[in-house]
Amino acid sequence: MIEVRHLQKSFGRVHALSGVSFAVPPGQVTGLLGSNGAGKSTTIRIITGYTSPDAGWVRVGGALASHDAMRVRRSIGYLPESAPTYGEMSVQSLLRFRASLQGLRGKARKAAVGRAIDTCVLGSVRRRRVGQLSKGYKQRVGLATAILHDPPVLVLDEPSNGLDPSQITETRSLIRRLAEGRTVLVSSHILPEIERTCDRVVILAQGRLCAEGDLKELLAGGEHELVAEARFATPASRAVALDAAKAIDGVQRVLPREMDGGVARWRVGFDPSTITEPELRHTLGALLAKAGAEVRLLERERVSLEHLFLKLMEQGPPSEPEAKPAEDAA
Known about the structure:
- This protein is α/β, with parallel strands linked by helices.
- It folds into 2 domains: 2-220 and 309-329, Rossmann fold (3-Layer(aba) Sandwich); 225-301, Alpha-Beta Plaits (2-Layer Sandwich).
- The protein has helices at residues 40-47, 69-74, 91-101, 106-119, 135-146, 165-178, 191-197, 215-220, 235-246, 277-290, 305-315, and strands spanning 2-11, 14-24, 29-33, 55-60, 63-64, 76-79, 153-157, 183-187, 200-205, 208-214, 225-231, 251-258, 263-270, 294-299.
- The strands form 3 sheets. Strands 6-7-8-3-9-10 form a 6-stranded mixed beta sheet, with helices on both faces.
- Helix 4 (106-119) crosses helix 5 and helix 5 (135-146) runs parallel beside helix 6 (165-178).
- The longest helix is centred in the middle third of the chain and has 14 residues, at 106-119.
- The relative contact order is 0.15.
């Protein structure tokens, strides 16, 4: 539904984007992640037509943004980080006004406003002034304005920014409802929210693409590693057990870390084609028992999005790819 290819954008000497390419499949929620200055906002502004790339191209719903900008803009519902509202207007009046800007009139406008109010659960505040609403309700109003023209694509920039925990939970549920029958691109720096909300992620660093793909596959595709944590009676018994662990057939590495109270924590990397995870768990457990250790933990550590993100930031972005001209998209 959204296709981004070889985007480049500079502001003076600052390279905001350097050959960024990714795709957002239809009917999914995709998270756009990156630290401050990674290029998230620039990417969103190019997709939504607020700025043009120096090189590369964007296609939305089959339309090339550089050739059919109005069609692309009509297909997108956009909620910027600081959504513009008119505090003196009631929620209903604001939505009617915004629907008129979308070219909706008469019964079509009335139906669109009613649908947006129902979808975003704004019925109880429809006659209240926007300026009197809580931050959470204002965010719902912003989302309602973004769906008035029933766009197939939603682009949301930091939709949970500044909300309290309960408001974040409500916004997360609302985004999932809005995603039914739509394609959603969410930009955020709140990793747990992206992990709970999104099907896919696109991770940027210093204007370059670091990772892209199905979130579950990315998290499951980490290194094969077990974490063993045990308390040893003496340093000598710990050293003997460590050497024995390193000698297990199929174990590729053991990264030890000493903790307080005689506790050691090992990260044990292994080759699953040589030894399976259950086999390694059994062998390590027997080895630790033989050493007289008190086993506190022996399991495969779940890789979180935060773990993946920090690892990618540590590695840094890949080398800059060669730029491709926009004509390649035609």
